[in-house]
UniProtKB/TrEMBL annotation:
Residues 99-226 form the SusD-like N-terminal domain. It is found in: Cell outer membrane. It comes from the Bacteria. GO terms for cellular component: cell outer membrane. This is RagB/SusD family nutrient uptake outer membrane protein. Belongs to the SusD family. The keyword Signal applies. Residues 312-546 form the RagB/SusD domain. Keywords: Cell outer membrane, Membrane, Signal. Pfam families: SusD-like_3 (PF14322), SusD_RagB (PF07980). The lineage of its organism: Bacteria, Pseudomonadati, Bacteroidota, Cytophagia, Cytophagales. InterPro entries: SusD-like_N (IPR033985), SusD_RagB_dom (IPR012944), TPR-like_helical_dom_sf (IPR011990).
Length: 546
């Protein structure tokens, strides 16, 4: 049973959430102010809990998947994402293909820029009032460590997304009309300073699932060091997380995605979604986003077991071909290729197909005419779904991601899920260690960490087939391995950005986006409303290219 980190309603903290450049009209019916809220230990505790809340607007949400997984080499538009709105291109489409990605993209503004700065401002408030709020010394250090970690977390999200940005270390308590973009070096210096404090102050364990711990802080620090090219430091922290605690890889990859096994020895940090959907800021809808339109096919109807298909995102042909499913169990654990007939009305099923028989098969391989004619069920093979160059032919029917399925939803029409959204897990830490070791020129060590992951992923009896030699490990191989291990887990865009591979791999493997992506797309556009709001526009210019 999960013990949840208790979040407080954001309305209580409304007075602390002013944008750094924009005059927001906040509704604060209780009349609460930072000065009154943060004068007691209880207020400080509530404030720290509130900083976590902003991840709920991103992880497990459509906007977060669009910002972190789309526009990469492994996903592209499905049918219900491949359209334009009456006021121009939908925000998700422009993030997927880079076509029409402009300074007024509402998801870039609302879900990345504004939410991260609101969280940072709350963290700054907590740290300002913490010394005088009457918190005992030991707890004060822990809470400061959490606030500093979370401030570093949100600044990392911002600097990787936008490049140079305003760096604010004190709360914004009145309207400000000027802003200055700090250098990337200055921002990362502050991130590292905050994280170095956090890893000494935060406890090793927690009784509140969802709260950050020291090993999770160290895992994030490893990623930050890797991003900054400090490979030895990245390797040291990754190794400490792998060997210094009780975290363990689960015996099989599929264990990670069993709904009843969400709290396990591999998860370092997660957004903990409650079964009480009212607490979830919209809950986790990841399970809906990558599903094909199965429910309109003969013999099928929408049900809880098969999921609510939003038909937003589909795998690139490249992603499917990264797997050798005869040896790698992650393919069948990650993707759903077959659907069983569930239509009880026999007149709506193909002749000869009963409930429980295969009704649909999607295949990443070509199927012969003879094979197709020998089956009663509907088949969508690779040539039905993709053109030779990988451009989708059929954006309605495709191999679908099933990692995030939720068989516990109340009804087939329920889109909200109580599944947790993993933010960091041990499997990724192994791959961070491998990347750091490769960058240090230690390919044998890099292969060791990769093989730990691949051995866990092996089909029983195929472990030897999954192991790679040191000579096989390149940066592209590690990115391929990260795709096999982490597909859909809201890390891909940052992976390609960190390794300077975003433009190269999108052009090579994602034909929907290949012609649109430009070198300037390695950062997002600063929201135009932020640029318009400042009076010192000469010091706060838009990112080049937008």
């Amino acid at each position: 049973m999960k013990t949840y980190l208790k979040y407080i309603p954001l309305i209580i903290l409304a007075a602390t959430l002013l944008s750094c450049t924009e005059d927001l009209q906040e509704y604060n019916p209780a009349g609460s102010t930072a000065q009154s809220l943060f004068t007691t230990p209880e207020g400080i505790e509530a404030g720290v809990n509130g900083i976590y809340t902003y991840n709920r607007y991103f992880y497990g949400k459509e906007e977060g998947h669009a910002l972190m997984e789309m526009g990469t080499d492994i996903w592209t538009n499905a049918a219900n994402n491949n359209t334009s709105g009456t006021n121009g291109i939908f925000p998700q489409l422009s993030l997927t293909t880079y076509q029409g990605l402009t300074t007024d993209n509402v998801w870039v503004k609302n879900r990345m820029w504004q939410q991260c700065y609101a969280a940072i401002n709350l963290a700054n408030n907590v740290m300002k009032y913490l010394p005088t709020a009457g918190v005992n010394a030991a707890r004060q250090k822990e809470l400061e460590g959490e606030a500093r970690f979370l401030r570093a977390w949100y600044y990392y999200m911002l600097v990787e997304s936008f490049g140079p940005i305003p760096l604010r270390l004190a709360p914004t308590e009145s309207i400000e009309t000027t802003a200055t973009r700090a250098t990337i070096d200055a921002i990362y210096d502050q991130i590292l300073q905050d994280l170095q404090f956090a890893v000494t102050a935060i406890p090793t364990t927690t009784t509140e699932y969802g709260r950050i711990t020291r090993p999770a802080s160290e895992a994030f620090l490893a990623k930050v060091y890797l991003t900054r090219g400090k490979n030895q430091e990245a390797s040291n922290y990754a190794k400490k997380v792998i060997t210094g605690y009780n975290y363990k890889l689960l015996p099989t990859y599929a264990n990670l995605w069993t709904f009843a096994n969400q709290v396990n020895t591999e998860v370092l940090w997660a957004v903990n979604y409650s079964t009480n959907l009212a607490f979830n800021a919209g809950s986790n809808i990841s399970h809906t986003l990558y599903l094909m339109e199965y429910n309109t096919q003969p013999g099928m109807k929408r049900d809880v077991a098969n999921g609510f298909a939003n038909v937003r995102y589909m795998p690139t042909k490249f992603l499917l071909n990264l797997f050798d499913e005869t040896s790698d169990s992650r393919y069948n654990a990650t993707f759903k290729s077959a659907w069983k007939a569930n239509e009880t009305d026999a007149t709506k099923r193909p002749v000869g197909i009963n409930v429980g028989d295969t009704a649909i098969l999607t295949s990443k391989y070509p199927v012969t005419t003879a094979f197709r004619q020998s089956k009663k069920y509907k088949i969508y093979d690779v040539n039905d779904v993709y053109k030779a160059d990988g451009t989708p032919n059929d954006r309605f029917h495709y191999v679908s991601l099933q990692k995030f399925d939720d068989p516990t939803r109340a009804t087939d029409a329920t889109t909200e899920s109580a599944r947790d959204a993993y933010i960091m897990r041990l499997g990724e830490v192994y791959l961070l260690a491998a990347e750091a070791q490769l960058n240090l020129g230690k390919k044998d060590s890099a292969a060791y960490y990769v093989n730990e992951i691949r051995t866990r992923a092996a089909v029983p009896g195929r472990q030897a087939n999954m192991r790679v030699a040191a000579a096989d490990v390149t940066l592209d191989f590690i990115l391929d391995e990260r795709a096999r291990e982490l597909a859909g887990e809201q890390v891909r865009w940052f992976d390609l950005k960190r390794t300077n591979k975003l433009v190269e791999r999108v052009k090579k493997y994602n034909p929907d986006a290949a012609n649109n992506i430009q070198t300037f797309h390695v950062v997002r556009p600063i929201p135009q409303s932020e640029v318009d709001a400042v009076t010192n526009k000469g010091e706060f210019a838009q990112n080049p290219g937008y």
